[in-house]
Design a protein that fits this description.
The protein is mainly alpha-helical and 369 residues long. It is built from 17 helices and 5 strands. Strands 1-2-3 form a 3-stranded mixed β-sheet. It has a two-stranded antiparallel sheet with strand order 4-5. Helix 4 runs antiparallel to helix 8 (147-167). The longest helix is centred in the N-terminal third of the chain and has 25 residues, at 21-45. The radius of gyration is 29 Å and the shape is elongated.
Amino acid sequence: MFHSKIEWLNVLKPNFKLLPLSERIICSVGAFIGLLISSCISWWVLGEINPWYIAPMGASAILLFAVPASPLSQPWNIVVGNSIAALVGVLCYHLIPNLSLAFSTAVAISIVIMMSTDSLHPPSGAVAITAVLGGSAVHDLGYYFLFYPVLLNSILLLVVAIVFNRLCDRQYPHVAQINQRTTDPTPTQKVSIQPKDIQEVLDQQTELLDISEYDLQKIILEAQAKANLRQNSVYMCRDIMSSHVVSLNQEDDIQLALNKFKDMNLMSLPVINDENQLVGTLALYEVVEWFKQSADLRSTWKYKVEHIMVRQVVTVKSEQRIEDLIPYFVERSFNYIPVVDHQKMVGIISRADMIAALNQQLIQQVKDE
C-alpha cells in the first residue's frame, strides 16, 4: 500500500532533469550574486524611493540562473514581460476600485499581451500584483513604477545574468538558429528529421511547451545520431528492455495483487523478493482460481502471492540478442520476459518491445537493399 502511494505521488512530480550537485550550486551562487549586485545598485540609484527593489525579481532570478535555456528566461521576456505587467498593473489600479478585481484583471490582461508579444515571463504576474497591492510606496510612483524600480531592476539583473552565465560557459541569451551558414536544414536534417517536421508537430500542440524550437531541434538531432548507431548493429536485450518494472512482492497479500492488476490493466506480473531477485510470476487467471477456491477451508492458508505464484520463470540476460526471444513470443505466446543479471531483475521485455525492434530492423534492411 505504501509503495502504491509513492507511485501516486510520483505522478505529481515534473519530468525534470536533476542537475549534478555542482551545477545546482552554480545556479544558487548565480542567483545570490545577481540579486545582491542588482539590489545594491538599485538602492544606490533609488535610495530615496521606498520600493527600490521588488520581490518578483527573486522569481526572475530563478529563471535566469537556474534555467537560462528556457524561452521564458530570455532577455526579451524579462524586460518586455515585466514592463507590460507593470504598465497594466498601474492602469488597473487607477481604473478598477476593487483591489481583488484589479489585480486579477491585471494578471489576466498581462498574460494575453505577453503571449501575443512572445514575451511571457511568469514572474511578471507578480509584478502586476505588486503594482496593485504594493501600497502607498508603489502607488505614489504612478506610471514611473514602470521605469523604476521595475525596468531598472530587470535590466540590472539581466546584465548580471548575462555576465555570470558567460563566465560559467553557458550560452545566454540563446542563439535561435542551428545552422549558422544558411537557413536550409543541416546535412543530417535533410536525410532525417527536418525543422519543418518539428514545426508541423508543434503547430498541432495546444499547450505552451517550455522549450525553444532550437533546443528541441538540437536534442532530436543528437538522439537521431545515437539511434542511427543502433540501426547498424544487432539489438541486444538491454537496448529494448524497460528498466522500470511493475512487479509484485512475494509477501504481498493476494488482494493487493488483484488491485494492482486492476490499476495497471495487466494480465501477468513478475514476482520479486526483498532483494529484488526474481522468484516467480503471477497471472490474473491464477488469482481468479484462488478466488474460486476461497470457500474451501483447505485453501484458507493461502493469502500471499508466494502461495499461488508460478516459480518456474523463463528469463534472459541483458547481453543476449533479441532473436533468442522470438520462439517464446511466437510459439509459446509469452506476454513478457524478465531480464535478469546476477540474480537481480534489471528489466522486462514485452511483446510490443519485440515488435517495435523487429520492425525497425526490417525497415533498415529494406533501406540497405
